[in-house]
């Protein structure tokens, strides 16, 4: 690994840090219901949308907010499913792609509407242009906007305000954040050489005289929302490892920045909305520290490569290049794998199945924790959940009733949080055990790596990430249905329980800060927060990790 490759990663992280606060302040203003300049700019257009849609700009209770979120998303899942099932009969299908099989359509519709974009089909051959450019792109806008709406409602509840209105927040997420950034990003990707066309696949004659079919389509517009919305689904089968989706180091940099743009800014949006930028800064610094640790571990593992091959003298001189694109090298490939799982995007520029055991453990850990920045909105809600747990445990240790943002944390809130904490391990570990017992033939690698393949698939589904160990034979009814159920439950159960927590806290009277109040804007709180994430989050999955990637590493 060269000095230049390390410097490139440092510069990328520095840009992320510089963008985080101004973008966070913009997000806080974009979702503020009080009169401000953004409301004057976007308000006229949004009011037209409200009028056409019949949306009333009035606050909802947390129950109504949750019902609106779940109900609207369920309807949209059904619409996406219908288009995929009948795409072969619809226009904009120059390749003549057939109707999607029921279990594939079930999986894909849930996948894209839950911001997961787990793909059990090959991008260029599984769906038509109409499906790609209409319902899938539609879902790729609406699902992250749903996540943004959730986090804003949750923050409002923590600060004692009404939850707001889900439909208003959804529209604001689209008009004020996702559409403007995606439009500009798509133009930049076209400038960098990413195709944007509705022409069918091109046919070329190679130097040997063979005929080659070259897939293309409206890739740039798909790619823009794929990254900024933390979606991750690829227009082409190999995702951002394909030169049409990621032609150069510059496009790779832009993709990383887009993945981190909103998710890294949310701590500062929270700080602004809570009336303490310092609190947001502490959470941002804590997550950045975890990201740097994960990056360091991944880079070290991938640069070291396979010890067995090193002993034979046949390891690549720059580390492990298996499954990686030469135009990126092992450093940018490993860094991308960390970012895409830290931001819960799921895009890949290298095949994660070919990472070293420790290099593959890092993406797994990012998804299991779901707090190393996390995905569009939902990840930061998990961060705030762990912050509440940190305050609760700290209060118990000093014999005081825990308080968070001036409100007591009591049994009702902790029971809801306990349910939320238990959901993800259940959705990951139980289906993994069932898959290993009933579908061993779909797992391409025996032993420890095979266990990791199945574990990674359900972890990716439960965390709404979407990346995968692609050696797994997941194009079956079992994997389609099981991961579809896991994606749905992993997305929506935690949304409802955490909205209930916010609603419960909002109903409580604020308590004046005293000398005994555990401050949440100090470095000590940041250290406690990181410790709670690692102890409560990581230890839950440690036995599974020991049987998978850690055991595999010891056998090399």
Description:
- This protein folds into 2 domains: 19-202 and 213-275, no CATH class; 381-555, no CATH class.
- The two termini are 21 Å apart.
- It has 19 helices and 4 strands.
- The strands form 2 sheets. The chain has a two-stranded antiparallel sheet.
- It is mainly alpha-helical and 556 residues long.
- A hairpin with a 5-residue loop joins strand 1 (202-205) and strand 2.
- Helix 3 (62-85) packs antiparallel against helix 18 and helix 14 runs antiparallel to helix 19.
User: Mean pLDDT, nearest integer?
Assistant: 92
Strand content: under 5%
Number of domains: 2
Note the run of SSEs as H and E. HHHHHHHEEHHHHHHHHEEHHHH
Structural class of the secondary elements?
mainly alpha
> Helical residue percent?
55-70%
* Rg estimate, integer Å: 23 Å
Spatial sequence of strands, sheet with the most strands: 1-2
Question: What labels would you give this structure?
Answer:
556 residues, 2% strand, KdpA, single chain, two-stranded antiparallel sheet, mainly alpha, globular, potassium
Secondary structure: elements and pairs:
Blueprint lengths: L2 H28 L6 H17 L8 H24 L16 H12 L9 H4 L2 H30 L7 H26 L10 E4 L5 E4 L4 H10 L20 H13 L4 H9 L2 H28 L2 H6 L16 H14 L14 H13 L8 H21 L4 E2 L2 E2 L2 H28 L9 H15 L14 H30 L16 H33 L1
Helix pairs in contact: 1-9, 1-10, 2-7, 3-4, 3-6, 3-18, 4-18, 6-7, 6-8, 6-18, 7-8, 9-13, 10-11, 11-13, 11-14, 11-19, 13-14, 14-17, 14-19, 15-19, 16-17, 16-18, 17-18, 17-19
Q: What is this entry, summarized?
A:
This protein is mainly alpha-helical.
């Amino acid at each position: 690994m060269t000095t230049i490759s390390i410097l490139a990663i440092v510069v990328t992280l520095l840009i992320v840090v510089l963008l985080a606060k101004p973008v966070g302040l913009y997000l806080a203003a974009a979702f503020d219901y009080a009169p401000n300049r953004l409301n004057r700019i976007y308000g006229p257009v949004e009011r037209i949308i409200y009028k056409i849609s019949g949306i009333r700009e009035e606050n909802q209770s947390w129950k109504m907010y949750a019902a609106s979120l779940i109900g609207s998303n369920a309807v949209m899942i059904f619409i996406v499913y219908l288009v995929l099932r009948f795409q072969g009969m619809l226009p904009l299908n120059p390749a003549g792609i057939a109707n999607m099989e029921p279990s594939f359509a079930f999986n894909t519709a849930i996948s894209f509407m839950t911001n997961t974009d787990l793909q059990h089909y090959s991008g260029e051959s599984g769906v038509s242009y109409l499906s790609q450019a209409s319902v899938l792109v539609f879902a790729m806008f609406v699902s992250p906007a749903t996540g943004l709406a959730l986090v804003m409602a949750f923050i409002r509840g923590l600060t004692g305000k009404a939850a707001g209105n889900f439909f208003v927040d959804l529209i604001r997420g689209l008009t004020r954040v996702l559409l403007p950034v995606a439009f500009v990003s798509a133009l930049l990707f076209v400038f960098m050489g990413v195709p944007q066309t509705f022409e069918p696949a091109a046919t070329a004659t190679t130097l040997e005289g063979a005929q080659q079919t070259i897939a293309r389509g409206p890739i740039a517009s798909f790619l823009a929302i794929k990254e900024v919305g933390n979606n991750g689904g690829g227009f082409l089968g190999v995702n951002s490892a394909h030169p049409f989706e990621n032609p150069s180091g510059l496009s790779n940099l832009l993709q990383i920045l887009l993945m981190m743009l909103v998710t890294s800014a949310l701590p500062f949006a929270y700080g602004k909305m809570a009336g303490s930028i310092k609190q947001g800064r502490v959470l941002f610094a804590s997550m950045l520290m975890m990201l740097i640790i994960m990056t360091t571990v991944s880079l070290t593992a991938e640069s070291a490569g396979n010890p067995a091959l090193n002993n034979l003298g046949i390891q690549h001189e720059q580390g492990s290049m298996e499954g990686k694109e030469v135009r990126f090298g092992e450093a940018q490939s490993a860094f991308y794998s960390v970012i895409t799982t830290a931001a819960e995007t799921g895009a890949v520029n290298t095949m994660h199945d070919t990472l070293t055991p420790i290099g593959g453990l890092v993406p797994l850990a990012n998804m299991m924790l779901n707090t190393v920045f996390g995905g569009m909105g939902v990840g930061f809600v998990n961060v705030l959940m762990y912050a509440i747990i940190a305050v609760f445990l700290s209060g118990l240790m000093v014999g005081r009733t825990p308080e968070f943002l001036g409100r007591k944390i009591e049994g009702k809130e902790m029971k809801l949080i306990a349910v939320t904490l238990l959901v993800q391990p259940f959705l990951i570990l139980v289906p993994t055990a069932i898959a290993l017992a009933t579908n061993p033939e779909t797992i391409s690698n025996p032993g420890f790596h095979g266990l990791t393949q199945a574990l990674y698939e359900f972890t990716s589904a439960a965390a709404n990430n979407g990346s995968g160990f692609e050696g797994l034979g997941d194009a079956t009814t079992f994997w389609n249905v099981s991961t579809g159920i896991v994606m749905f439950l992993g997305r929506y159960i935690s949304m409802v329980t955490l909205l209930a927590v916010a609603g419960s806290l909002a109903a409580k009277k604020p308590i004046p800060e005293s000398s005994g109040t555990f401050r949440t804007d100090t470095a000590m709180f940041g250290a406690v927060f990181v410790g709670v994430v690692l102890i409560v989050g990581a230890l839950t999955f440690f036995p599974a990790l020991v049987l998978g990637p850690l055991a595999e590493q010891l056998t090399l």
